[in-house]
Amino acid sequence: MGDCTETFNADNWQMMVGSGTGIWVSIEKQELVVIDNNRIVKQYRCSTAANGAGNKKDSGKTPLGWHRVGAKIGDNFPAGAVLKDRQWTGNIYKDGQDTQDDLILSRILWLEGAEGGCNRGGNVDSYSRYIYIHGTNAVDDLGRPASAGCVRLNPEDVIDLYERVETGMRVLITMD
Q1: HSE (side-chain half, CA atoms, 13 Å) at 123
Q2: C or N: which end of the chain has fewer Cβ atoms within 10 Å?
Q3: Taking the alpha carbons of 109, 114, 118, 121 in that order, is the dihedral positive or negative?
Q4: Distance (Å, rounded) from C-alpha 105 to C-alpha 153?
Q5: What angle do CA 49, 85, 21 make, to 5 degrees?
Q6: If we measure between CA atoms, which residue out of 42, 37, 19, 26 comes closest to residue 172?
Q7: Predicted local confidence at residue 2, as pLDDT
Q8: Which residues pair with residue 47 across a beta bridge?
Q9: Measuring CA to CA, which residue among 120, 103, 102 is closest to residue 111?
Q10: Which residues contact 133 (CB under 8 A, 6 or more apart)?
Q11: Contact yes or no for 46/32 (Cβ under 8 A)
């Protein structure tokens, strides 16, 4: 995987996040964890890419390494708001609604790579790949790899996470 951070390292976490708040996504555990002042404050079941981990454009894989929340999209959108091209379509998805579409729901945390050559710049740039943490209608897939590269959460969980997160907050995505 090149220069990308592949495992959680407490010393590296201290250097990047310190006693502040950060997010750790474990691909192995299919879990997103919010850590504040070096203690876990919230855990969510998530779904990363069905194609595994990888940073290249058009790979359909979840990128590894250090990121930051580059943008927050969805202030005051209703739960289940259907987003397309980072805009609310005006539609609201209701749990159990019949659709074959892979929807982006409720909120988006748009990730920006923080490691040049790993997930920032060129054909590995997470931001230009539109890698998000977002709500999904595929809640039955949470807990196993099923996305096209993003980190999916339950639509209500992504609203809760959104309220805990600031733009610029550090996000670490690892294999372990």
Answers
A1: 6
A2: C
A3: positive
A4: 9
A5: 60
A6: 26
A7: 47
A8: 152
A9: 120
A10: 23, 25, 32, 46, 108, 109, 111, 150, 151, 153, 158, 161, 171
A11: yes
Quick one: which of 134, 140, 171 has its CA closest to 155? 134
What tokens appear for 107 in the block?
Answer: 């909120």
HSE, side-chain direction, 13 A CA sphere, residue 56: 6
Q: How many residues does the chain have?
A: 176
Report whether 153 contacts 165 (CB < 8 A). Answer: no
Query: Could you tell me the pLDDT band of residue 143, with boundaries at 50, 70 and 90?
Result: very high
What does the domain layout of the chain look like in residue ranges? 10-174
Query: What are the pLDDT digits (tens) for 32-90?
Result: 999 999 999 999 999 999 999 999 999 999 999 999 999 999 999 999 999 999 999 99
For domain 10-174, the CATH class is mainly beta
Q: What is the three-class DSSP state of 162? A: helix
Decide if pLDDT at 99 tops 90.
Answer: no
What does DSSP say about strands 81-84 and 65-73: parallel, antiparallel, or unpaired? Answer: unpaired
Q: What span, in angstroms and rounded, lies between the C-alpha atoms of 100 and 113?
A: 31
Angle in degrees, CA 170, 163, 8, rounded to 5: 30
